[in-house]
Design brief:
It is a single chain. The chain has 124 residues and is α+β, with helices and mostly antiparallel strands. Helices cover 19% and strands 13% of the residues. It has one helix and four strands, in the order H-E-E-E-E. The strands form two sheets. Strands 1-2 form a two-stranded antiparallel ribbon. The longest helix is centred in the N-terminal third of the chain and has 23 residues. The protein starts with 26 loop residues before the first helix and ends in an 8-residue tail after the last strand. The mean pLDDT is 84.
Length: 124
Amino acid sequence: MTDTSSRFDVEPSPPARRRLTPSWVDPRLIAGLALVLVSVLLGASVLSAADHRQSRWALNRDLAAGTVLTGGDVHPVRVQLGAADSRYLPASQAVIGQTLQASGKSGELLSRAQLGNPLPGVGV
């Protein structure tokens, strides 16, 4: 075998240049964290602005026609109904004490057509 190490004169690498005192306060790290924070906040605001759901009343259990509604009979739910939105009662409208004119199933939205005034002589 022949020794080929003497054929190439390789100069040693220069020593690595480093900071004297390493620090976590690096401008690239701060810029990266700021970019991540801004993108998360921007994404959250875009998603929340895209939410067009409205609160409407839904039935907790099956109810027969003629039932006077109590607080345990209904709960608010957030739904997006589009053109049918005006047919259902908003959760901001008081429905306690009103009488169902038509029966309803559990989980069903409470429509305007299902409600009437309390029956005479019924106090709530």
